[in-house]
Amino acid sequence: PPNILDYPTSTDMVVPEGSKVSLHCEATGSPAPNITWRREDGQDITLSNGQKVQSIDGPNFNISKVTRVHMGFYLCIAINGVPPSVIPPMISVQNQLVGAHEGQQLTLECNSEAYPKSINYWTRDKDEIVPQGGKYEPILLDNAYKVHMKLTINSVSASDFGSYKCVSRNALGDTDGTIKVYYLKLRGFKETSGNEEDDYEDSGAASNENSFSLIFALATFTIYLHHHPQLRTLHPA
């Protein structure tokens, strides 16, 4: 499989707003790998002309004028069609804290990578496996050594709030990711001592939003570079 070189591949950067950034990624392999840049959070990459794209091909990635939308983690992915030999289970969770109100349908999601193929399942607070059927609908979407895990909770109730774990396990080990589901009040309502709900107005919303924007306008932005874990050369333990 391809091997991404630590040098001269770019490392983490902290840059002021408006500056120019040039990122470089270099990898070896046989056949020679193709290099692609993506955001780790799955969002589009915003180009200097305002166009949004899912990925950028090639070893060089240039940002002519950094703004707040460029802040985040970026993946340098090298692919040459040769899969890794073995991969211990790895879990990534995009949203680790999820709010929900009672009665709504909620879907939790995790991404797993492992080879040999892993066993994947969901557990609750006391490591009890979430059963399939009824109000819980676990779904696994396989793609080679990658698995997209989804857990849909139909009609959320008070007993559904708490922590959930997505678990991945194979002969090389196991790992998990945690998602906490918390109670989310419906916007525009508040609870009273009599368990009734009345309309209310959040008078501080506008000032908080303005302060948030000002902080961002004065801040520097960090661009993090990650080597995609699936593409490192791995060896059996």
Please describe the structure with a list of short key phrases separated by commas or semicolons.
single chain; 237 residues; mainly beta; Immunoglobulin-like; 2 domains; four-stranded antiparallel sheet; 1 helix; 46% strand; disordered C terminus
Report on the structure:
Helix content is 6%, strand content 46%. The radius of gyration is 22 Å and the shape is flat. Strand 19 (189-191) and strand 20 form a beta hairpin. It is built from one helix and 21 strands. The chain folds into two domains: 3-82, Immunoglobulins (Immunoglobulin-like, Sandwich); 87-183, Immunoglobulins (Immunoglobulin-like). The chain has 237 residues and is mainly beta. Strands 2-21-10-5-8 form a five-stranded mixed sheet, with no helix packed on it.
Oligomer: single chain
What is the CATH T-level topology of the largest domain? Immunoglobulin-like
- CATH architecture level-2 label of the largest domain: Sandwich
Output the helix-strand order.
EEEEEEEEEEEEEEEEEEEEHE
Strand content: over 45%
In total, how many beta strands? 21
Arrangement of strands in the largest sheet: 2-21-10-5-8
**Tally of alpha and pi helices:** 1
Give Rg in angstroms.
Answer: 22 Å
What is the CATH level 1 assignment of the largest domain?
Answer: Mainly Beta
Largest sheet entry: 5 strands, mixed
Give the count of structural domains: 2
Write the layout of secondary structure elements.
Elements: E1 3-4, E2 13-15, E3 21-24, E4 27-28, E5 34-39, E6 45-46, E7 52-53, E8 56-57, E9 60-63, E10 72-79, E11 87-92, E12 97-100, E13 106-115, E14 119-123, E15 136-143, E16 146-153, E17 162-170, E18 173-183, E19 189-191, E20 197-199, H1 205-218, E21 221-227
Parallel strand pairs: 10-21, 12-18
Antiparallel strand pairs: 1-4, 2-21, 3-9, 5-8, 5-10, 6-7, 11-13, 13-16, 14-17, 15-16, 17-18, 19-20
